[in-house]
């Protein structure tokens, strides 16, 4: 038994420098554990207090006067307001991802004073170009020939003349022509 106790003392003496270095970290860890346990106990007390107060004084189902919900509104927004909102959604950076209905450009034919709408090329009809967003057009560009790209660019310039679409088509024509 004395030999066992002596061996244990020798082992603990050898571990002492390492234990001494770990001791501050152990103290910090234990202090953090105690603090977190204290916070949990306080949270439990707060929850019990809230439940007790709710049982003694039930909450009223009143709606604050500043809170409004869609169900509370009886009036329907006027059509002009909806049109204004639709126009705002197609302005700025979101205009790149929305497609407006085509507005055909009018041109004089044979100097007779008659006007005619620009006819979409076959590729525009095939792709349903007027309803494509910029991202959708970008996805389809790889499969188009330079002639088709030229036709789409001419059609875009003659109708909507949207700068992002024109730039995209012109850049693709340049890259396809360089190959």
Describe what this molecule looks like in 3D.
This protein has 179 residues and is mainly α. The protein has 6 helices and 2 strands, in the order H-H-E-E-H-H-H-H. A two-stranded antiparallel ribbon has the order 1-2. Strand 1 and strand 2 form a beta hairpin. Helix 5 (146-158) packs antiparallel against helix 6 (163-178). The model is unreliable at 104-115 (pLDDT under 50).
What are the segments in which pLDDT stays under 50 over at least 5 consecutive residues?
Answer: 104-115
Number of helices: 6
H and E order: HHEEHHHH
Q: Which shape, going by the Cα principal axes?
A: elongated
Q: Count the beta strands.
A: 2
> Percent of residues in beta strands?
under 5%
State the oligomer.
single chain
Q: How far apart are the first and last residues' alpha carbons, in Å? A: 91 Å
Radius of gyration computed on alpha carbons: 38 Å
Helix content: 55-70%
């Amino acid at each position: 038994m004395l030999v066992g106790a002596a061996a244990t003392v020798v082992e603990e003496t050898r571990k002492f420098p390492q234990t001494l270095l770990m001791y501050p970290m152990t103290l910090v860890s234990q202090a953090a554990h105690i603090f977190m346990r204290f916070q949990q106990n306080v949270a439990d007390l707060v929850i019990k207090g809230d439940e007790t107060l709710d049982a003694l004084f039930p909450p009223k189902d009143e709606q604050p006067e500043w809170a409004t919900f869609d169900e509370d509104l009886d009036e329907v927004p006027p059509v002009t307001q909806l049109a204004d909102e639709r126009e705002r959604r197609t302005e700025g950076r979101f205009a790149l991802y929305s497609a407006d209905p085509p507005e055909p450009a009018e041109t004089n034919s044979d100097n007779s004073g008659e006007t005619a709408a620009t006819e979409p090329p076959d590729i525009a009809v095939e792709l349903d170009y007027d309803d494509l967003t910029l991202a959708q057009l970008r996805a389809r560009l790889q499969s188009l020939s330079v002639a088709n790209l030229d036709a789409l660019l001419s059609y875009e310039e003659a109708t909507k003349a949207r700068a992002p679409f024109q730039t995209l088509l012109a850049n693709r024509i340049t890259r396809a022509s360089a190959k």
